Automatic annotation (TrEMBL):
Location in the cell: Secreted, Extracellular space
PANTHER family in UniProt: PROTEASE S8 TRIPEPTIDYL PEPTIDASE I CLN2 (PTHR14218), SERINE PROTEASE AORO, PUTATIVE (AFU_ORTHOLOGUE AFUA_6G10250)-RELATED (PTHR14218:SF19)
Function: Secreted tripeptidyl-peptidase which degrades proteins at acidic pHs and is involved in virulence.
Residue ranges constituting the Peptidase S53 domain according to the UniProt record: 231-642
Domain of life: Eukaryota
The species this protein was found in: Serpula lacrymans var. lacrymans (strain S7.9)
Residues spanning the signal sequence: 1-25
Binding site for Ca(2+): D601, I602, G620, D622
PROSITE patterns in alphabetical order: SEDOLISIN
Protein name: tripeptidyl-peptidase II
Bound cofactor: record note: Binds 1 Ca(2+) ion per subunit.
Alphabetically ordered keywords of this record: Calcium, Glycoprotein, Hydrolase, Metal-binding, Protease, Secreted, Serine protease, Signal, Virulence, Zymogen
CDD domains linked to this entry: Peptidases_S53, Pro-peptidase_S53
GO biological process, one term: proteolysis
Amino acid sequence: MQGILANMQSLLYLVVLSLGLLAAAESPISPYSLHEKRTHIPAGWSLQRRHEPTSALPLRFALTQSNIDNIEKLLMDVSHPESSNYGNHWTAGQVIQAFAPSEETISAVRNWILENGFEEERVKVTSNKGWIEVDATTEEAERLLQTEYKVYSHASGKNHVACDAYHLPSHIQPHVDFVTPSVHFDARLSRRSDEPARSVGKPGYGSAPKTTGQVDAVEISSTDVSTCDEYITPACLRALYGLDYTPVATAKNSFGIVEYTPEAYLQTDINLFAMNFSEGLYGVSPYMVSIDGGYAQTEYQGFDYNGESDLDLQYGMTLVTPAQQVTLYQVGDMVEGASFNNFLDALDGSYCTFEGGDDYTQDAMYPDTEPGGYMGPEACGTATPTYVISTSYSYNEADLTPFYTARQCAEYAKLGLMGVTILYSSGDYGVAGNDDVCLNPNGTQTADGTMFNPTFPGTCPYITSVGATQVNPNSTVYEPESACEQVIYSGGGFSNYFAMPSYQKEAVDYYLANYYPDYPATMWNSTGMSRGFPDISANGANYVVAVNGAFELVYGTSCSTPVNGAIFTMINDARLAAGKSTIGFINPTIYSTDFSGLFNDITMGDNPGCGTNGFNATPGWDPVTGLGTPNFPKLRDFGYNKVTVVSGVYLINDITIKLFMLPVKVQLAIVWLVVNRNAKHATGF
């Protein structure tokens, strides 16, 4: 019986990895085939009744994109260090043109709907040609999709219309990502009360940093690194990762940090932190980009409201130095909140509609007509992406459908094509999901579940997932770190949705061949074909953070993610100063053979969860700390110790020689020597 269950589980994983939902599990209704199916009713919901046949039920068909099957190949072309196109990033216009749905797709879906009795005035193609909207009744929708719509209620009192499964003709399926409303359940569940709260499925749900309480900052030195096993300060991080660098191309660069309302920073906390640990930061504020009514609210205060933002900004702004602008993307109003897709909408206006865009069952919708809500239009293409964007929030992968996560993951690939580095925290519960819940065989998530529960977007192969380490008790910053085992455990494991990307195959195959986990196949995705995470790590324990006028010790991958973001921002500074492109999507480079030894390998610790010890940190990549922690001097020097022309100025091993000040013969001799010396290092970071 156990063997049968294991085989069934492996088969399930293979199906999910193809980004379908148990397709073809039922006999097709000719000429229809199953498109999406929900296996269980989400926790908190209960079935009430069939939906009224004559009630209005507008349908929206998310059309598939052109070239989406080639997106990894296209991204590798500009991101892999061995590619001749490395660093030749795309413009936003090129991205839009490359992935717009084809006219064939639009015509096929539209004609099929018209052939089923809908008048032309009830069938509309959106302006960006990514959606087809149909003005339908429940009865018409059920006939068109071969399904039954039902009304479900939540403990909060909210009702939702959904179906268990729906079908599409086989010739239409390749043209449609998904249909709404259908099997998707509301992940927003905004609680309308006097006090805002994170909603189930919101980015902040269960993934916030943790604190063990207040500490007396008087006892903590801003420069002494002898107590970094007890208190992490900016000085500790600079010592751990060799971040001794002053940016010089600040006008060309910016570091982006994303926060979701009601989480917000306090300027008084930044000032308090500056007085103790960050000279020059006093009075400095991030450059705020408001998205969908986002602002730094001060009505609600406390660690739950200010801890995340204070942490991200105090350390992010300090590590890139006050001279470098930090951009704060503040997303969502105080009532509706927001999701990752709402943030992506603001970066790419076409995403609001084409490629499926928002799903009203998952994403906040604006204008928000509730009292106190943001009454302006949804932000679509109103924000410019910075070259590095750090986000310390996550969902559980199982909170969302494979189609939904695949669509969002493709958007991160597009940002990579444009030269943007996207960092997400991997989670704080080891192999368990946010809130320490694990999966059950029926797909539900509970505290006593036994199946490992990966987080998203950490499992998306087109972002860089960041785990957490620690300075071991009674150790120093000059000794190896271990996986974080204080208060939190570094999130990591293997995706149940996404296939293993080519860039990490060698590293993950080595791990599985030499350190194969001793767990039954029913507990984790043991196929050897799925995306492993995290990719890298940094310290995530004992951060001294100013929160609401006092200092607290803070833990989490929420700590490690902005640290890596700051380091990559400084690498971009060096590249921009040298006339180079930004690093963009870094995963193909950091996993490449040339990068061996440029990260500090972590070989101690594990990431417990789901009643197990989780995975182990091992030599090389592992699903606890990834490739390890950054070594800034090595990362910076790799690819920089070679000739680079910048308007008549040559940079050689960080020594600037202004050639126009030298005799012509000397100029030519220097160029010849340097070019020949560095010819073998023509590619790389």
